[in-house]
């Protein structure tokens, strides 16, 4: 396997991965590292992590680059290290992450560098957990447990900023449950709420950690796909469409399943996130007008081109 194939494999991971040589110079920076940190590879490669870039700090605010860098220590003694640190994001804020540093050895066993795998922290100190609790109270839809409309607005603005500053494209799926009013009228709002919750859980089942599914309101959902292209956007939409068709709830009267109409839009250069959302909304409307349970992108039904996908 050549180096290009290794790079493609590492770029496909949802964890951030970067490598450093014995001089402290960063030699590799994968796609998820870009998304998590805000820094593109060309801004990082060839520079030292202590060079006013990541500059990890511990929970006491001490800079690890100066007092105890896990990567440098691993290069020195060859031991694997794990830690919870706070990474400096390009936009200025500190983000809690978990890191795992491992040595890189050549064929003779000599240490030639280190690799760090990192991701957002899932076991943060109490203060961060309290902040997360407060954030959820404001930004999470109480019925479904996914992001609410306000969370969608904030996330879309962040996507737009990443697009303008880093040219990182994003896609939006606007999802509208088909015939939901009829379900509510026939079976009642309690069953309708169960349908809404089922759809929300189904839509989040196949997303990457860096993507976001939000309840826009009523029977409408917005899905944000970071670093996406046309093929990926349509593929995800169709997989979610098929997965939703195979989901159901049981009531006293019957087994209920639903379909949804999908509208897709991909960000263009210098376009606002609101504009991308409006285009996705229009595509969902066209999908409903075309008979529902289909996917529209750029005013065309693209469902048929994906029907043979397993």
Walkthrough of the structure:
It comes from Pseudodesulfovibrio cashew. One of its GO terms (molecular function) is catalytic activity. Residues 168-300 form the GGDEF domain. InterPro entries: DGC-Regulatory_Protein, GGDEF_dom, Nucleotide_cyclase, PAS, PAS-like_dom_sf, PAS_fold, Rev_trsase/Diguanyl_cyclase. This is Diguanylate cyclase. This protein is α+β, with helices and mostly antiparallel strands. It has two domains: 3-123, Beta-Lactamase, CATH 3.30.450; 127-301, Alpha-Beta Plaits (2-Layer Sandwich), CATH 3.30.70. It contains eleven helices and 13 strands. It has helices at residues 3-11, 31-37, 41-44, 64-67, 70-77, 126-139, 149-166, 180-187, 189-204, 230-245, 273-289; strands at residues 16-20, 26-29, 81-88, 94-105, 111-120, 170-177, 212-217, 220-226, 249-250, 255-256, 260-266, 295-297, 300-301. The protein has a six-stranded mixed beta sheet, with helices on both faces. The protein has a five-stranded antiparallel beta sheet with strand order 2-1-5-4-3. A hairpin with a 5-residue loop joins strand 4 and strand 5. The longest helix is centred in the middle third of the chain and has 18 residues, at 149-166. It is elongated, with a radius of gyration of 22 Å. Mean pLDDT is 86; it is low at 306-310.
């Amino acid at each position: 396997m050549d180096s290009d194939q290794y790079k493609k494999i590492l770029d496909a991971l949802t964890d951030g991965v970067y490598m450093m040589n014995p001089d402290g110079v960063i030699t590799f920076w994968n796609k998820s590292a870009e998304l998590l940190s805000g820094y593109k590879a060309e801004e990082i490669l060839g520079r030292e992590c202590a060079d006013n870039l990541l500059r990890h700090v511990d929970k006491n605010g001490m800079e690890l680059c100066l007092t105890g860098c896990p990567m440098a220590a691993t290069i020195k003694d060859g031991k694997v290290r794990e830690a919870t640190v706070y990474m400096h994001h390009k936009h200025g804020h500190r983000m809690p992450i978990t890191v795992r540093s491992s040595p890189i050895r050549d064929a003779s066993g000599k240490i030639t560098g280190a690799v760090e795998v990192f991701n957002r922290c899932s076991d943060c100190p109490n203060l961060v957990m309290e902040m997360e609790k407060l954030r959820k109270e404001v930004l999470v839809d109480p019925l479904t447990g996914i992001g609410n409309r306000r969370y969608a607005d904030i996330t879309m603005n962040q996507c737009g900023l990443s697009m303008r500053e880093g040219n990182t494209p994003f896609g939006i799926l606007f999802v509208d449950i088909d015939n939901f009013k009829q379900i509510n009228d026939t079976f009642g709002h309690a069953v309708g709420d169960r349908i809404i919750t089922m759809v929300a859980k189904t839509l989040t089942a196949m997303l990457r950690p860096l993507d976001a599914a939000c309840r826009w309101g009523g029977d409408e959902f917005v899905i944000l796909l970071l670093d996406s292209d046309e093929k990926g956007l349509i593929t995800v939409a169709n997989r979610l469409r098929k997965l939703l068709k195979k989901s159901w709830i049981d009531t006293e009267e019957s087994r209920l399943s639903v379909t949804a109409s999908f509208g897709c839009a991909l960000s263009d250069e210098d376009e606002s996130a609101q504009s991308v959302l409006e285009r996705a909304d229009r595509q969902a409307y066209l999908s409903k007008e075309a008979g529902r349970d289909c996917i529209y992108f750029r005013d065309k039904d693209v469902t048929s081109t994906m029907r043979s996908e397993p």
